[in-house]
Amino acid sequence: MSTPSLEIKSVTHRYGSRVALESVDITLQPGQFNALLGPNGAGKSTLFALLTRLFKLQQGEILFGGLSINREPRLFLSHMGVVFQQNTLDLDLTVLQNLEYHGALHGLSTREIRARAEQELEWLGLKDRSHDRVRALNGGHRRRVEIARSLLHRPSILLLDEASAGLDVASRQAINGAVRDLCAQRGLTVLWATHILEEVKTSDPTIILHKGKVLAQGIGQALCDDQNAQSIGELFEHLTGTTGQAA
Ligand code: ADP
Predict the structure, then answer these.
(1) Ligand 1, residues 24, 37, 46: which to mutate, most atoms within 8 A of Cβ?
(2) Cys-Cys link to 81, which of 117, 155, 206, 237 (CB 3.0-4.6 A)?
(3) ABC transporter domain location, by residue (predicted)?
(4) 11 inside domain
């Protein structure tokens, strides 16, 4: 059976009179690394807040394989793994304790959590840090712990909001590469939100969000060809009339 896709249909979100998202339509390509590229203020975090039900949907519809976020919220959310922009780990707990806490919230047994945590931490190169307090880890390693944690309940989709923000270039590339491997090796669908042009490849299904509107959606190279652009940066410039924010 093919993986269902996530569909965002005609979603509009307002903060008072300010429109943060306007008639946004996005369909993710299942099993792929989908890049959501937009500068600060584009509406990325608002979209994430809606996808995770931190905010109530004001207008439009969000579906995963036909499951409605409004009608079947628990089931919908059970398919989502999330890494937010801000750190959400407890710095005074160990890596494993953070994972145990999250796993318990998802109803997993201690045995399941331990087995899955070991697998994910090993893959992310952090197995020998399991009993260290998160406070002792550098920024790149903390992000890896958050990725490990987001995978514990075996989601179908992984949402990452500026997951590499604030990291040095090498750590950023490592995190981006690890998430790409997840798609290739496990067929996980990823939504990678970023304002950093270098994190998007022309082979990626790409959504360009600007001032709350989707300006383009498709494989990066096809979008570049349409706009006669030589790179994702040029594409962004042609569509928005502004240069993208580099790292
Ligand atoms: P991004 O994550 O792409 O930087 P946001 O979703 O944070 O974008 O913001 C989209 C727009 O909504 C911006 O104009 C921002 O100023 C506005 N905004 C975000 N949060 C709030 C809020 N709590 N109250 C009012 N305006 C907000």
Answers:
(1) 46
(2) 155
(3) 6-236
(4) yes
Which residue segment(s) compose the domain that 111 sits in?
90-154
Question: What angle (nearest 5°) sits at the alpha carbon of residue 21, between those of residues 32 and 76?
Answer: 50
Query: How do residues 13-50 score in pLDDT, each as one tens digit?
Result: 999 999 999 999 999 999 999 999 999 999 999 999 99
Q: Which residues contact 215 (CB under 8 A, 6 or more apart)?
A: 208, 209, 239, 240
Instruction: Calculate how far, in angstroms, residue 62's C-alpha sits from the geometric centre of ligand 1.
Output: 20
Whose alpha carbon is nearest atom 17 of ligand 1?
20
| Residue 18: alpha-carbon gap to chain centroid | 24
Least Cα distance to 24 among 34, 5, 10, 13 occurs for 10
Are 18 and 44 in the same domain? yes
Q: For residue 215, how far is its CA from the centre of ligand 1 (angstroms)?
A: 18
Indicate if 62 and 104 belong to the same structural domain: no
